[in-house]
Amino acid sequence: MLKSRCLLLLSLLFALPAVADTIWLDNGDRLTGRIEVMEGNKLVIQTEFAGQVSVRVDRIRTLESDRQLLVKTSDNTQRARRIQPSETAGEIFLVNGEPQPQAFQLSQLRQLMEPQPVIEDWVWDGRVDLSLELENTDSKKRDLDVDVSTEARHGDWRHAFAGDFERDYRDDIKTRHFWESDYTLSWFFDEKWFWQNRLGYQRDHLGEVERQMQLGSGPGYEWWNNALGRFETSARLEHMRIDGRDGDDSVNNGVGLAWDYRRFLLGKRFQLVHNAETLIPHNDAVNYIVDAELGLRYLLNSWASLSLMTEWDYYNSSDEKSRNETRYKVGFGVNW
Description:
Elements: H1 2-14, E1 21-25, E2 30-39, E3 42-47, E4 51-56, E5 60-64, E6 69-72, E7 77-80, E8 82-85, E9 91-95, E10 102-105, E11 111-113, E12 123-134, E13 141-154, E14 157-170, E15 173-187, E16 193-204, E17 209-226, E18 229-244, E19 249-265, E20 270-281, E21 286-299, E22 304-317, E23 323-335
Antiparallel strand pairs: 1-2, 1-5, 2-3, 2-11, 3-4, 6-7, 6-11, 8-9, 9-10, 12-13, 12-23, 13-14, 14-15, 15-16, 16-17, 17-18, 18-19, 19-20, 20-21, 21-22, 22-23
InterPro entries: DUF481 (IPR007433)
Protein name: Peptide chain release factor RF-3
Organism: Pseudomonas saudimassiliensis
């Protein structure tokens, strides 16, 4: 009998559930999972059985978490070691090393999120988008647009690869046949500062610029990177080779300026995406080259989304090779 009791006690000890966050609602319901982010009047929690759930903050009575969380109010940002529930509706207690826990009204909080961890092991994510171009035309069209992007982070190093393939037909006539790829290696020598090296290649089977190859290196700064998104800027010295379809080739150096902005909105239901790169070559024939993207994604679940994107390609030249193209695309994406 004593042996069986000891075995039962050991099995209970090893079967203890993992620490989870808990939210109590004003109707008496309770949600258990992992709080991802709270902003405005939306709190997003990842649950085991229902997946990602968005809850209105004004419907939350109180909440509890044994994890470290960043808590932002209108005039302060602090790191809470844990959050304790309160018997008073709409109130929580922050435990952050003070002699007594601090009482906060949920209505005071602007943001609540997990701090960005120090990355020691490999972290890999990415997405694939299939898109159709929006165009008001009566012609018969067939579009194929595939975008692939992936990142791998390990410690102070970040590897990024992106590829884009586009092929369009209008009345069985090929009007666009283009693909590009680039690889970027970033080394974070400081919490925010990084040094970036990038290798890019573009191939256009129909346009005036047949090929474009570039190699760049320079510093960058990550303004923020958290559960709501990230924003970073970089400046690089570029070495470029541009091959014209008419045989007019050029090899020159220049400066590249780039930024990458991603921001979740409305409780991670939408994501605003904006990235752009401007190249200023040391070439009398080419003034500057702009490649920009702006769009909005609607997240269907944790792995699928719908998107509406705008792409702008601008090639400003002192001769007749200037190009100004704007495209609108709607697509379906899968991320991991």
